[in-house]
Q: What sequence folds into this?
């Protein structure tokens, strides 16, 4: 289990939190809870002043922000996971420990992606609140006609699909960044390459897949929303499956190439 992973237990908790006193931790938790409640409180306070167009735009932002924000942050969080250990001369101790390659890879990856969880949590209650108040938003895409073949009662599905694809793509970009971090000796080069590959390749490949799917499936495929997220789903599932397998099976060989270089 990941909770038994010593790397995850140590690195998923920030250093300042481990060193903070009880009162400091209580204060930080209180501030976080207040910030987490704030978006929902603002929506409930000003909901009566928002028209249907504003409500729809607000819901659209909350439904799709993980699709753009989380994938863009993930490479920066993960790119230095291994390369920074090399720079600090701690990597040899970790490799020579009893930890398996899988424990090192998963511990580093999930601990570095934990900030995305803390950023995401405050948006969950406000999203649920908007779903409850969704009668004001009208049908999805009402400004341009029926959107994606969905009726007005499919806001929950719309939000779930947006969050699922965004978090999957973020996880895939994190896996790519970890692979590059394993192949690089400096954090700066790992960060630049990770952004170039993760973001650039994602845009290029998903655009190509999307155009192919649209060319072959539009005449016979009606729910355009499912069609539009298919490239992101393929990226989010295929990339981790390929690169995690490569890293776990060729972990020591990849590390030896960096040392030789």
A:
């Amino acid at each position: 289990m990941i909770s038994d992973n010593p790397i995850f237990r140590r690195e998923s908790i920030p250093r300042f939190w481990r060193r903070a006193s009880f009162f400091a931790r209580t204060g930080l938790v209180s501030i976080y809870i207040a910030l987490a409640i704030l978006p929902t409180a603002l929506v409930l306070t000003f909901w009566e002043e928002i028209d249907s167009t504003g409500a729809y735009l607000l819901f659209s932002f909350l439904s799709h922000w993980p699709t753009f924000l989380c994938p863009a942050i993930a490479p920066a969080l993960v790119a230095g996971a291994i390369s920074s250990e090399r720079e600090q001369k701690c990597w040899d101790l970790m490799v020579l420990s009893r930890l398996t390659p899988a424990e090192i890879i998963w511990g580093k990856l999930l601990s570095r992606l934990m900030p995305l969880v803390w950023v995401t949590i405050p948006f969950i209650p406000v999203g649920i609140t908007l779903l409850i108040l969704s009668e004001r938003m009208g049908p999805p895409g009402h400004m341009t006609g029926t959107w994606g073949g969905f009726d007005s009662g499919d806001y929950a599905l719309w939000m779930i699909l947006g969050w699922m694809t965004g978090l999957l793509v973020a996880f895939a970009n994190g896996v790519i960044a970890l692979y590059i971090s394993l192949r690089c000796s400096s954090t700066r080069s790992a960060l630049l390459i990770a952004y170039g590959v993760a973001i650039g390749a994602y845009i290029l490949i998903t655009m190509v897949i999307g155009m192919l799917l649209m060319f072959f499936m539009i005449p016979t495929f009606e729910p355009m929303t499912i069609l539009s997220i298919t490239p992101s789903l393929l990226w989010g599932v295929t990339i981790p499956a390929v690169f995690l397998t490569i890293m776990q099976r060729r972990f020591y060989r990849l590390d030896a190439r960096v040392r030789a270089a």
